[in-house]
């Protein structure tokens, strides 16, 4: 291997596989004995008629059966033990009964009544007994959390849920799944992609945790029905109203107008309102006037807001958002931005079930974020080093700095229909709109002023080297006048139509086939140094209309406990007329080689050039003993290149920047080949453990290179598919529960991610002299965090259920959650000493050996979160009082690393020569930067919030 530590990774993977083998050998080594039998009858709950061909399986074994013409089934030769049985039939809710005890030579009779549904198999599940802790028969790593599970975790929104999963790293406002880059995951909200490809952060629209019905985080191989992801898929399903009305209010604050000046307070307020149940107009008003729509209609509504100032203590007097909604003049450009960080989201969902075999759903989701957090925009003209997002050098001038507004909107209409006892289909149409603007006071870039750092009173003086002249230090590194260095605006409007049909063929095959088509409009305006000329010192401006989609077919095969998922997916992508015209125009900046490659690798459809890629998927799982499953999967996955890589500066005019990055329409999608091997073991109904080893190769990563003979420009920088990365590691997860009161899970992982380069702009950095020619070998990825450990513990006592402490009976109706998390620190490149200044400062610079880039690991991260809720009833209403403490022990987790020490800077530490060291301050203009005492160099300290909720 080309990277140190590779041997350790291979050892770790080998040890993981050895542990699986040991568990395989020693589990289930029971003495042979006479086995039992499970028998019973399955009927339709409404009609009482027997159901023919219902599939009954004993989870985690090869045992199973189908019902005959009388609805009767018989499963012989069942070893004594505890099992879970699943009953499934198209057009009916899945039934899972857990905790089934089969004794020696026992004949156990179990009868079931199934309810009809229009939803897909597995989408509506009725659980009899305790909910299973783990899906033993899954063929990949999928972590599924329902709304009930989220009550056992300390989360505010969907991003919190995702970031707490093993194998997921959250760093600099970006989510990395199993070593992938931030944009490589796919985020689906109610089946529709909600990614903002132009922001660079991955997730676009976010939702409150209390509006979530279910979250699936798929970090292993996924089926052919899902695409446009090379690292993982996040599926969020929002809540739907049901037969009973529910309504509630929730308010949480860390100050209550009293504690604003306390260290644990960030001036944080969180508001939430929800309402769900039968839709009142059709169910009441229309019926009252004689209009009676068939079936039932339900609604769910959620409105969420979280407003807080920055924990750094620096706050702008007022944020002004030029694209925040005003609701026809009811609000102005400041109304939705009262604090430094403002997050709003809303959901409205209407579900109509005209009859048992049809479901029609309309949903509307909207989210808005307004802040001065530069992390919201991670894609612009040139590579920007990841940072905590706090504009430290403008912290004395925040009123003149940009406001970042990210506005997202999704509307969808879906229809699910059961055609017959073996077939159903789904159709979904949607519109997704995302808009991000970074500007100052809503003004045009023409109004921007160049920022300046000037000396402030009281003046700071120093003596010249000759000791005779006294000089004034001409600033402190903070900007006192002027504005930010960019003006940015982009939007995406995507119209998507997707559909699929599923059919059960015989007793073992469930075949699903479908399509997806999306037609988009993207516009980007990115202006650097807006005070220069008409359009800044450099700019990128384009509006494009790409289209994309896919066709897939997959077969889920159930061979009495042996599960095989096989599928193939064809992704297609049309870069659009903008790219086609740039290729056809011999006066554009594209080289002849790019034109030829684009022509060779595309084909014409309805006057547009189209690219396509075929990707196979295969996964299996099978029992190796009762309640112990081995699974493995393999597949090819792809992700289209980011728009900036394709379209940047292809317009006829070019900017004046010295080192321009030009887009390349001939780029291919990035591709990953993933392998996964895992073992799931149900020790008892209340204890399960899983061990997973994974390996992932990622090809065709985009990189920049210097190209001569670019028309109209000469030598320039363009994007090509030449980079490579790989990720490999081992994950372990253990889940347990004790009785009905205690729930817990413990997880850990060790992995390594290496790549040729951690950003796509290395070629430009080489051309500009910022970087030497990179080495041929792989180096560690900047976002790689080799190990992580997490634990979630929950205690729950319901109404009338009293805990006891030292024999004393405690109060009832309360729950407590505790989360511990630790992981390796951020990676950084080591420093070498290259001299000493005349004033005695040791001079450090980043090592010239690029094979050692990001080879060092900074101080570890760890924290503990705690929450406690006590419920009580007053005047017929249910109240809940909550205390929530983030970072309970106020651990200092370094997120800006001093590469000399591997920790966050503290006064007196040695620093790299490019830093403005307080022990050896800059004395001459321009001051390089402020002293490295950025309060955001550590993550947020302890934050204590109190809350009160009421349910009607």
Give the tags.
952 residues; 5-stranded mixed sheet; 52 strands; 7% helix; globular; disordered N terminus
What does this structure look like?
The chain is mostly beta strands. It is about 5% helix and about 45% strand. The protein is built from 8 helices and 52 strands. The strands form 10 sheets. It has a 22-stranded antiparallel barrel. It has a 5-stranded mixed sheet with strand order 3-2-5-6-9, with no helix packed on it. The protein has a 5-stranded mixed sheet with strand order 10-17-18-13-14. It is globular and about 105 Å long. Mean pLDDT is about 90; it is low at about 1-5 and about 25-30.
Oligomer: single chain
Percent in helix: under 10%
Q: What is the number of strand segments?
A: 52
> N- to C-terminal separation?
62 Å
Q: Number of helical runs?
A: 8
Percentage beta strand: over 45%
Summed up:
This protein has 952 residues and is mainly beta. Helix content is 7%, strand content 47%. The longest helix is centred in the first third of the chain and has 21 residues, at 6-26.
Itemize the secondary structure elements and their pairings:
Blueprint (H helix, E strand, L loop, with lengths): L5 H21 L9 E9 L10 E4 L5 E3 L5 E7 L2 E8 L5 E9 L4 E3 L2 E3 L10 E4 L13 E5 H4 L7 H6 L4 E4 L2 E4 L8 E4 L2 E2 L1 E2 L5 E2 L8 E7 L14 E6 L7 E8 L15 E10 L1 H9 L7 E13 L32 E15 L2 E14 L31 E16 L4 E17 L21 E3 L6 E3 L13 E20 L3 E20 L9 E7 L2 E13 L2 E13 L2 H8 L7 H9 L2 E3 L2 E18 L2 E12 L3 H5 L13 E2 L7 E15 L2 E24 L3 E25 L3 E14 L6 H6 L11 E2 L6 E11 L6 E2 L2 E2 L4 E10 L3 E2 L2 E6 L5 E5 L9 E2 L3 E14 L2 E10 L56 E9 L1
């Amino acid at each position: 291997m080309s990277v140190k530590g590779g041997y350790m990774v291979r050892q770790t993977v080998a040890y993981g596989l050895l542990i699986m083998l040991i568990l395989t050998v020693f589990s289930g080594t029971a003495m042979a004995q006479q086995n039992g039998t499970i028998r019973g009858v399955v009927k339709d709950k409404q009609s009482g008629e027997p159901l023919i061909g219902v599939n009954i399986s004993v989870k985690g074994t090869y045992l199973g059966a189908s019902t005959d013409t009388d609805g009767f089934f018989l499963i012989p030769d069942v070893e004594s033990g505890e099992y879970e049985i699943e009953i499934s039939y198209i057009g009916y809710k899945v039934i899972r009964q857990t905790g089934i005890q089969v004794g020696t030579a026992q004949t156990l009779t179990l009868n079931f009544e199934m309810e009809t549904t229009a939803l897909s198999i597995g989408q509506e599940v009725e659980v009899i007994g305790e909910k299973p802790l783990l899906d033993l028969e899954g063929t990949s790593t999928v972590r599924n959390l329902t709304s009930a599970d989220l009550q056992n975790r300390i989360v505010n929104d969907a991003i919190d849920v995702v970031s707490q999963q093993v194998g997921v790293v959250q760093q600099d406002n970006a989510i990395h799944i199993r070593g992938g880059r931030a944009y490589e995951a796919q985020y689906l909200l109610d089946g529709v992609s909600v990614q903002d490809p132009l922001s660079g952060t991955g997730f676009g629209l976010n939702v409150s945790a209390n509006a979530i019905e279910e979250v699936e985080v798929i970090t292993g191989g996924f089926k052919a029905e899902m695409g446009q992801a090379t690292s993982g898929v996040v599926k969020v399903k929002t809540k739907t109203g049901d037969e009973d009305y529910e309504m509630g209010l929730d308010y949480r604050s860390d100050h209550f107008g009293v504690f604003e000046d306390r260290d644990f307070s960030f001036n944080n307020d969180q508001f939430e309102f929800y309402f769900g149940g039968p839709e009142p107009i059709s169910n009441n008003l229309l019926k009252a006037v004689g209009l009676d729509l068939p079936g039932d209609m339900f609604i769910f509504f959620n409105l969420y807001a979280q407003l807080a100032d920055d924990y750094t203590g620096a706050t702008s007097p007022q944020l002004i958002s030029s694209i925040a909604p005003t609701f026809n003049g009811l609000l102005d450009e400041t109304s939705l931005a009262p604090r430094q960080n403002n997050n709003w989201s809303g959901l409205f969902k209407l579900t109509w079930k005209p009859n048992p075999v049809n479901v029609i759903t309309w949903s509307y989701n909207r989210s808005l974020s307004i802040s001065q957090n530069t992390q919201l925009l991670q894609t612009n003209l040139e590579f920007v080093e990841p940072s905590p997002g706090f504009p430290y050098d403008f912290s004395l001038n925040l009123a003149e700095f940009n406001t970042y507004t990210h506005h997202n909107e999704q509307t969808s209409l879906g229809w699910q229909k059961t055609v017959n006892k073996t077939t159903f289909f789904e159709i979904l149409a949607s519109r997704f709109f995302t808009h991000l603007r970074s500007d100052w006071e809503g003004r045009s870039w023409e109004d921007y002023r160049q920022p300046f750092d000037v000396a402030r009173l009281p003046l700071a003086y120093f003596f010249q080297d000759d000791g005779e002249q006294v000089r004034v230090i001409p600033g402190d590194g903070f900007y006192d006048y002027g504005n930010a260095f960019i003006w940015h605006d982009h939007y995406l409007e995507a119209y998507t139509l997707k559909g699929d049909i599923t059919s059960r063929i015989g007793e073992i095959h469930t075949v699903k086939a479908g399509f997806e088509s999306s037609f988009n409009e993207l516009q980007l305006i990115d202006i650097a140094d807006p005070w220069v000329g008409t359009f800044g010192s450099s700019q990128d401006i384009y509006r494009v209309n790409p289209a994309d989609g896919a066709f897939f077919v997959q077969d889920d095969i159930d061979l009495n406990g042996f599960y095989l998922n096989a599928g193939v997916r064809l992704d297609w992508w049309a870069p659009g007329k903008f790219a086609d015209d740039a290729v056809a125009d011999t006066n554009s900046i594209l080289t002849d080689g790019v034109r030829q490659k684009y022509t060779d690798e595309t084909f014409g459809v309805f006057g547009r050039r189209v690219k396509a890629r075929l990707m196979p998927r295969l996964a299996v799982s099978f029992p190796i003993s009762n309640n112990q499953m081995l699974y493995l999967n393999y597949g090819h996955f792809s992700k289209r290149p980011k728009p900036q890589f394709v379209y940047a500066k292809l317009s006829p005019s070019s900017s004046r920047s010295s080192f321009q990055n030009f887009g390349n329409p001939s780029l291919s999608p990035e591709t990953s080949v993933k392998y996964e091997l895992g073992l799931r073991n149900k020790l008892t109904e209340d204890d399960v453990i899983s061990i997973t080893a994974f390996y992932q190769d990622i090809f065709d990563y985009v990189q920049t290179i210097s190209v001569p003979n670019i028309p109209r420009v000469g030598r320039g920088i363009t994007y090509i598919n030449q980079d490579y990365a790989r990720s490999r590691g081992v994950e372990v997860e253990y889940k347990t529960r004790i009785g009905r009161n205690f729930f817990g899970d413990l997880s850990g992982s060790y992995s390594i991610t290496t790549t040729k380069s951690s950003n796509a702009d290395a070629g430009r950095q080489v051309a500009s002299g910022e970087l030497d020619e990179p080495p041929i070998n792989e180096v560690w990825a900047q976002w790689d965090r080799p190990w992580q450990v997490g634990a979630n513990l929950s205690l729950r006592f319901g109404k009338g259920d009293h805990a006891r402490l030292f024999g004393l009976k405690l109060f009832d109706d309360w729950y407590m959650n505790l989360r511990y998390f630790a992981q390796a620190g951020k990676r950084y490149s080591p420093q070498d000493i290259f001299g000493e200044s005349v004033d005695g400062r040791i001079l450090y610079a980043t090592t010239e050996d690029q094979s050692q880039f990001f080879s060092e690991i900074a101080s570890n991260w760890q924290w503990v979160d705690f929450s406690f809720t006590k419920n009580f009833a007053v005047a017929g209403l249910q109240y809940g009082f909550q205390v929530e403490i983030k970072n309970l022990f106020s651990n200092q987790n370094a997120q800006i690393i001093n590469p000399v020490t591997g920790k966050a800077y503290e006064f007196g530490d040695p620093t790299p020569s490019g830093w403005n060291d307080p022990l050896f301050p800059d004395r001459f203009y321009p001051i390089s930067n402020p002293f490295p005492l950025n309060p955001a160099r550590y993550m947020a300290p302890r934050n204590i919030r109190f809350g009160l909720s009421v349910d009607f």
